[in-house]
Amino acid sequence: MQAEALRLYLILYIYYLQMEFETKYISPDLKLSEFKGKSFKTEVVFEHHMLIWFISGETKIIQADDSHIFKAGDIFLIPRNKITTVINYPSNGQPHKAVAMHLTTEKLKDFYARHKAIGKTQPLETIRTYKGHPLLQSCLASLIPYFDLGQELPADIANIKIDEAISILRAIDKSIDGLLANFEEPGKLNLADFMERHFMFNMPLDRFSYLTGRSLATFRRDFKKIYNTTPQKWLTEKRLQLAHYQIKEKQRKPNDVYIETGFENLSHFSFAFKSYYGYPPNALLNK
Q1: DSSP 98-135
Q2: DSSP assigned state of 47
Q3: Which CATH fold would you assign to the domain 24-180?
Q4: Strand pairing of 30-35 and 75-78?
Q5: How far apart are CA 135 and CA 165, in angstroms?
Q6: Which residue, among 193, 197, 226, 222, has the nearest Cα to 209 in the 3D structure?
Q7: Residue 15's CB: how many other CB atoms inside 10 A?
Q8: What is the pLDDT of residues 20-69, one digit of tens each?
Q9: Considering Cα of 202, then 46, then 16, then 7, what sign does the dihedral take?
Q10: pLDDT tens-digit profile of 57-113?
Q11: Which strands, in side-by-side order, build the sheet including 40-45?
């Protein structure tokens, strides 16, 4: 009975998301997304750089060293291979709505085969913001009529629009070549340093292993040598300790903390917190 109830719940949840979330593609790399629910949270490692124009609503983006809140009119570039928490909200009665352009490695290699990159290549570590830049906004807004057509954009036209966006980025950001023309994959990183900076992101272990330049088996072995425990146990304890600090010292509500500390839902967070500390998270607010 429990298995059947869980299956029914998952079916209803997926149906709910489909009703609340709509994504239109005019090519594999150009999409218009719209979310009409109260909020939507996901944690992701983008395979490609993402150029985004925000039309309405609000988004909070959290990475290891920074966080941003974006609103209508904002334009920003999210780097690939960076663990990112994205929380979407409606705002001012308007749904969360945005145009996203995937700047794939394939497209960028083709572009830089035709245009010489200027400057030294380096990893794109942080989000680049181009707040309402008229050239970029004009480029991305020109895609809107194609979404309304309800059919796929011819590949040559899609490529022209992506080339246009890259050319505008080069014109307004003189250091962008060094970032977009860097095609290196993650190398072997210091595992302890990486995990201490990224433990609050609820990602599968195979993503952690890939981003530290290791196979999953090597990741588990190296982790055991450093921490003398399993990754799952260590991650849970670190997240609970961060949540404890946020609630006790910052007096933040558990409902505002659990998402940002890597827990999927409030009930699981509350259960894990009480099991670890012996009292519920709300008890810290009373103190």
Answers
A1: EEEEEE-HHHHHHHHHHS---S------S-EE-TT-HH
A2: S
A3: Jelly Rolls (2.60.120)
A4: unpaired
A5: 9
A6: 222
A7: 10
A8: 667 888 889 999 888 877 777 787 888 899 999 999 988 888 887 788 89
A9: negative
A10: 888 888 877 888 999 999 999 988 888 888 888 888 888 889 999 999 999 999 999
A11: 40-45, 83-89, 58-63, 66-71
Residue 160 backbone dihedrals phi, psi, to 5 degrees: -65, -45
Tell the burial category of 199 from Cβ atoms under 10 Å away from its Cβ (0-12, 13-18, 19+): buried
Q: Please, where in the chain does CATH 1.10.10.60 lie?
A: 191-286
The hierarchical CATH code for the domain 191-286 is 1.10.10.60
Range(s) for CATH 2.60.120.810 in the chain?
Answer: 24-180
Assess whether pLDDT exceeds 60 at residue 236: yes
Residue 68, both tokens: 């941003």
pLDDT of 3 above 80: no
| Burial of 242: CB neighbours in 10 Å, binned 0-12, 13-18, 19+ | middle
How far apart, in Å, are the Cα atoms of 263 and each of 223, 236, 267?
Answer: 21, 9, 9
Q: Which pair of structure tokens corresponds to residue 177?
A: 């070549």
pTM comes to 0.73
What is the C-alpha separation between 286 and 160, in angstroms, rounded?
59
Query: Count H helices, E strands: the chain?
Result: 13, 10
Instruction: Please state which of the ranges 10-19, 79-88, 205-214, 225-234 shows the lowest mean pLDDT.
Output: 10-19
